[in-house]
Design brief:
The protein is mainly beta. It is built from 2 helices and 11 strands, in the order βββββββββαββα.
Length: 231
């Protein structure tokens, strides 16, 4: 088994291979080939600032020039830099590198490789990190990847931010709105009002007819009923 590793010095797009632009990032990152497997543009992407808490991620494109599918069984970082969690693009199952095809690690809609606690990796921004890609048939493909912050062209391939705080639950009833108030004390108060009389000034209504056409004791109250003349 022979391995060919490309240097970390800047490469031209042509020199980096015909698929170097697959990730949409600069083709100046680590690449290595072992048998039929090639790993290109391997990059460790951290939080935007050194010392900032949050996850990190590994991005890469893996090419399979062989006649059989292979699975990416693991990605390992040396020096205890963190455990990498692999997730397939569909959210479940293994990350498969199809025969005569490729798989992208990182970016929207692609497989992902996330390090939950990437704090230590932010201290390596601008340096390199040893990374091992383990394939089901080829075995280990080892290289040194640049460690970059999730800025500029790397932002869309980097780790996601912290999840947003859950929204506060909405109350089951709003005062003055439709339905009864959620507060039991307010429910009892409303029920008491309903039993004692009509709210909104209707308690103690005049003794005459509701339409105002009946006679009132002592005269009408803004109604149209007749009034008994004095004397």
């Amino acid at each position: 088994m022979t391995a060919v590793a490309l240097s970390l010095t800047a490469l031209t797009a042509c020199g980096a291979g015909n698929n170097a632009q697959t990730l949409g990032v600069r083709p100046d990152n680590a690449a290595a080939t072992v048998d039929s497997i090639s790993v290109q543009n391997a990059t460790v992407i951290t939080q935007p600032k050194a010392g900032e808490s949050g996850p990190a991620a590994v991005s890469a494109t893996i090419f399979n020039k062989g006649q059989e599918d292979q699975t990416l069984d693991s990605i390992t970082l040396s020096d205890g830099a963190g455990t990498v969690k692999l997730t397939a693009a569909n959210g479940s199952g293994p990350v498969t590198v199809p025969a005569l095809g490729s798989v992208i690690i990182g970016g929207k809609g692609n497989a992902s490789a996330v390090i939950d606690n990437g704090d230590a990796l932010t201290k390596k921004i601008g340096g390199v990190q040893n990374v091992v890609f383990k394939l089901s048939k080829t075995g280990d493909v080892t290289l040194e990847s640049f460690v970059v912050p999730a800025n500029a062209e790397y932002a869309k391939f980097g780790p996601s931010g912290q999840p947003p705080a859950p929204a506060a639950p909405k109350p089951s009833g709003e005062p003055g709105g439709e339905g009864e108030a959620a507060d039991p004390a307010k429910k009892d108060e409303q029920k008491s009002q309903d039993q004692s009389g009509q709210p909104d000034g209707q308690d103690g209504a005049p003794a005459g007819n509701e339409n105002g056409t009946g006679e009132n004791q002592g005269g009408t109250e803004g109604g149209t009923g007749s009034e008994t003349p004095a004397g």
